[in-house]
Known about the structure:
Blueprint: H1 2-14, E1 29-36, E2 57-64, E3 67-72, E4 81-82, E5 92-97, H2 99-102, E6 106-114, E7 117-125, E8 132-137, E9 140-144, E10 150-154
Parallel strand pairs: 1-10
Antiparallel strand pairs: 1-5, 2-3, 2-6, 4-5, 6-7, 7-8, 8-9
Amino acid sequence: MKAVTLIIISFLLLVDCSQPCACGPEPRAYYYFFYKSSSNPDLLQPQSGIYNPADVKLYEVINNNGTITQNPAPAVNGQYVFDNGTRQGVYFIYYQSSIFQYQKDLKKTLIQLKQGVTDTLTYTFVPSSSYPQQIFYNSKPVWKLGDGMEILIVK
């Protein structure tokens, strides 16, 4: 599995996203965020979780030539939370990051779990690349280059 992940990451590092490429007009990095606590294995589960999937929103904060804008992150049919995929029956946030489109101008991502509860993703980058070297969740490291795309958040 690590070998496949490294091959995919190596391919992504070779993609020059400043030019149109075969991988689409806006190639994206994607991540699966799973939320749990010591007493609840799935905080996004509608019946037993504390966050309603319909309330979850993601925003990307971008520096556009010195002007900071906040845009909704790409969503699938207007939603960010799913319960199918890598872990059947477990809810997760599917984040399609615009990091290749905005590169280092993507300053942070805001994850609004519900009204009044917003967490922050920030990034460090591989030198001379648009690919993230490390991702921080509320200033705590949660992902580094070479990790899989699943990120577990314990609240």
